[in-house]
Amino acid sequence: MLRLLTDENFNGDIVRGLLLRQPDLDIVRVQDVGLAGSDDPDILVWAAENNRIVLTHDRATMSDYAYERVAAGKGMAGVFILNDRFPVGRAIEEILLLAACTEQAEWSNRAVHVPL
């Protein structure tokens, strides 16, 4: 099962929908782990240390920081980037599909746009 971390501005309706559909989904928010207000590099460090894939709507900077991290030889569990205008129901379906059909290690050191 995938281990997920949502960044601060990730749509809460998606998180609630994910947990309603799959209550045992391993997902936490940055707000729940003391990272509220943290910048992207700090979130990526915490996610890497805790082997969590970051869920974000931040197409502008998060992927750049993720690529910089990988280029510097620092590992990360991965980043899933979802357009913030993507329909909530479809976002839930896509994330649940990834959680059901893929393994954590498949996303190591990758930043991908969802849907794939």
UniProtKB/TrEMBL annotation:
Pfam families: DUF5615 (PF18480). Residues 3-112 form the DUF5615 domain. It comes from the Bacteria. This is DUF5615 family PIN-like protein. It comes from Chloracidobacterium validum.
